[in-house]
Amino acid sequence: MEAKDRIEELRSILNEANYKYYVEDAPTLQDYEYDRLLRELENLEKEYPELVTPDSPTQRVGGKAVESFASVSHEVPLESLQDVFSYDEVSEFLDKTGKALPDAEFDVEPKIDGLSVAVRYENGVFVQGATRGNGVTGEDVSENLKTIKSLPLKLDGAPAHLIVRGEVYMSKKVFRELNAEREAEEKPLFANPRNAAAGSLRQLDPKIAAERKLDIVVFNVQTAGELSFKTHSESLEFLKKLRFRTVPHWEYRSLDGVKERIAYIGENREEFDYDIDGAVIKVNSLSARRELGSTAKAPRWAVAFKYPPEEKETEVTDIVIQVGRTGVLTPKAVVKPVRLAGTTVTNATLHNADFISEKDIRIGDTVVIRKAGEIIPEILRVVSDKRPEKAKKYEFPKTCPVCGEPVSRDDGGVAVRCRGAECPAQRLRHIVHFVSREAMDIDGLGESIVALLIDKGIIKSAGDLYYLDGQELAALPGLGKRSAEKLLAAIEKSKSNDLSRLLCALGIPQVGQSAAKALARAFGSLEKIKEANIFDLTAVNDIGEVTAEYIVEWFASPQSGHLISRLVEAGVNTMSKEEASGTKLAGKTFVLTGTLPSMARDEAKNLIEKAGGKVSGSVSKKTSYVVAGEAAGSKLTKANELGIPVISEEELLSLLDE
User: Fold this and answer.
1) What is the DSSP string of 529-592?
2) From the CA atom positions of the chain, what is the Rg in Å?
3) So which residues are the catalytic ones?
4) What is the pLDDT of residues 258-274, one digit of tens each?
5) CATH class of 312-386
6) Is the pTM of this model over 0.85?
7) What residues are paired with 347 via a beta bridge?
8) Across-strand partners of 525?
9) What is the pLDDT of residues 293-344, one digit of tens each?
10) Fold for domain 3-61?
């Protein structure tokens, strides 16, 4: 088979698999087989780049990042709807419309809580997608939309010019997974799926949008060239034949039917994989819509019924603490089971110690609860007149419930954290950081292997890595004798790393690469750092009082002492191999920008740090010098604005020679 034929065959198979999986929820290929075929297509397109087309499944991974989104003028305005909040208002809308249009038929749809977009196709091929914006002008998010696998990139049987309107959303399942990942990485959580979808669709880097697994439901034909339809329902059926995922809809002629469907959608909102914030009631006849027209703000032929947030009372039976991968203690209220927004709720988030204190939540309290963004149960308030007499103020733990280590609040933050170097709850994160490139740089020890070693009970802390048995390693799934030998060799090699790498690997709060290098040069050994007090530590360039307190606290912990003992017994180096060459640049902060004539930036950085100086990544009033090379960018502009001295590589070398 010729390459062109095979490429077309692979595209057909993969596009069909995407449609079956993401639109019809009926997978036809196993993940392994899909990935294998996609890899084959990628390889063929690399070999024959002239055969790559915009509708190929390989084009969904995300193009190059952009600096900003271009503006797009909508050919057909993307109007917003008038909201109604009661059945009386729905009745008023139907009566008013009925007077102008006797026997009017109405279409009822769930109102998806996402981000509205217009998607344009020319000759059946996707060419552009834009956000709603102000309804007249939006932003071009074509590259991000291409990453949505339920959105077809090529249409069979489409008119030459077609624009459809849809709602981009993040499914509830993906939203929960994304927030779980962000919580583990100590990133702010998204409040609800809509915020998550909006933030993902407006990422300047399409690869991030691709990772977020967005989805889309199409609910309107904006224009279809010469093609015309009599009803909205007919247009949706046409879109379905083109293989779009379309919004579910029902037709009614009576108020009772419309009310019944609105209630049904509200009561069964948990059945949808997307968040909904209402129901849309539309006139079905397209000619009638044209007759009714629009006001300056919204069409006269449609309204959006908004569901009130459901709130219930329940009782707090306990407050439990969970310790995350980063050591943060997160409180959770255990409540008496209550039916809320379609599901039975048995617990609610309490966020942090301050949240409990501010709302004065106590065990035994009756509280009002709701689902934030229809997803996460949260406590709104305490019903104070129902509080039991013996209810006591909740005392947040002073020690980690997992390992018993004393806990402390982040400086300037709300998080209370366990700092235990060997805390089981943080085991995976600690060890993954320990072996990472910027720390001990143990090649081949990725997160999956670390997780496997922990699951098998082979290691409990980073110190155990240096006592691994070759035969035991080789017997693990996916490794084998050769891989085990390589891994042991990499671990053995890491023993000779400089003290600065070990310090970075230990995971002491606020001690990254820069601070670790400064400490290693100043003290020369791990033992001297351990013996240092806050005054000694703050005398080191780059070490502030808060960091010094963290260092003293970390070394005082028994868990830290045990970890260090294990490392020393294994023969891990605890001495600095690199001494500072002086203090010529002590107290000076440098920023490097552009390409230097004779050395890389890392070389210049090392020279500055050896002379006692500090290198920063951004220009501020505290910057002493900006070292500018060829093609210096915004940092040079900022330096000139602030009046910061700008020097060349030659002038930097002169400072070092003085």
Assistant:
1) HHH--HHHHHTSTT--HHHHHHHHHHHHSHHHHHHHHHHHHHT---B-S-----STTTT-EEEE
2) 31
3) 111
4) 999 999 998 888 889 99
5) mainly beta
6) no
7) 334
8) 575
9) 998 888 999 999 998 877 889 999 999 998 887 788 999 999 999 888 667 8
10) Helix Hairpins (1.10.287)
